Amino acid sequence: MSRAVVIGAGIGGLTAAVALERRGWQVTVLERAERLEAVGSGLAVAANALKALDTIDLGDEVRRLSRIQGTGGLRTPHGRWLIQTSEQSAAARYGDSIAIMLRATLVDLLADRVRDLRLGTPVTGVDAENGVVRTQGGEFEADLVVAGDGINSATRAALFPGHPAPVYSGVTAWRVLVPQPGGVVQSTETWGRGLVAGVHPLADDLVYLYATDLAPAGEPHGDERAGLLRRFGDWHQPIPALLESARREDVIRNDVYYLGTPLPAMHRGRVALLGDAAHPMTPNLGQGACQAIEDAIVLAATAPDLTAYTEARLARTAKVVAQSTKICRATKVRHPLAVRLRETGMALAGRLSSDLMLRSMDEVLGWTPPESAATGQGRAARA
Questions:
Q1: What is the pLDDT of residues 90-129, one digit of tens each?
Q2: Is the peptide bond before 304 cis (omega within 30 degrees of 0)?
Q3: What gap in Å lies between CA 9 and CA 39, rounded to an integer?
Q4: What is the pTM of this model?
């Protein structure tokens, strides 16, 4: 039986473990943390990732535990719609919409299906040529090593020494879960002068709110809730009301980094990189976790041929990183005239083409798993 060792129990690593096990691999997942903590609050699982999860019979479960995004689009801070789209339009175009869920829920779904998950086991080194993973407690030999050890991946640095590290986008991000207020909350994203706020209803009467602003990297953190109210307190509802109801201790803040220079390959020797270890990106497309899921499903379908994995994933993920970075730059505009021109252009384009927002995502959301990935009985396998 072929043996795989997965470094990191994030969404990408866990998805890879499940997919490999279904193909007969013996898999061990090594996670340095003592317990699984899904930092990040909410998560958008878009049509491309749902199709990927269908191949391991998890797509329908994710849909069941999620709130499917309905009418959405872009607004101004005063509430004027610039571009709108609907769940029906997205489903008709891509065969699925976007499932909004708790990140912890997806992590739990995946972890429950992994047979050998070892928490509190930090990796101290990897021999890529021989497939040896070293830990403080001993060594693991593997035919395949999957490195899902995140944006600051030690494995990536060891495999590609001298490659440029992730760079700061100039943007810091906040995320928080708050109780559902009275009335209907729509999925929206609002762009202001260098500021962004997004709102998505979740299951179980929760709302996921995220926000970004320009800030120096490593800026000291204070009362983040108070800072958000200063920035967004006069924006359209329900943004101020949601922030008022948030608890100070629940607000998460992270500076946003991305890999400006793509790796020369997504593997070396017996080691494959996936997710943030391979291609960290800004959150503007909502594709960080989705691309990690795609990576995992394709890796399981091509392993142990890692050259085929790189050929299938490197160019695609580089394009997604670049597209997300481009949107991030657009959100950073602060000059009033430039903001006005941006809003006018968006509104005009939306009137000229009602499906503009969807069409701009065709290459990303229209992706389908390779036929060889369909091991389950979900939608993708039945299609």
A1: 788 888 888 999 999 999 999 999 999 999 999 999 999 9
A2: yes
A3: 12
A4: 0.94
d(CA 114, CA 17): 7
The 3 state secondary structure assigned to the chain is CCEEEEECCCHHHHHHHHHHHHCCCEEEEECCCCCCCCCCCEEEECHHHHHHHHCCCCHHHHHHCCEECCCEEEECCCCCEEEEECHHHHHHHHCCCCEEEEHHHHHHHHHCCCCCEECCCCEEEEECCCCEEEECCEEEECCEEEECCCCCCHHHHHHCCCCCCCEEEEEEEEEEEEECCCCCCCCEEEECCCCEEEEEEECCCEEEEEEEEECCCCCCCCCHHHHHHHHHCCCCCCHHHHHHHCCHHHCEEEEEEECCCCCCCCEECCEEECHHHCCCCCHHHCCHHHHHHHHHHHHHHHCCCHHHHHHHHHHHHHHHHHHHHHHHHHHCCCCHHHHHHHHHHHHHHHHHCCCHHHHCCHHHHCCCCCHHHCCCCCHHHHC
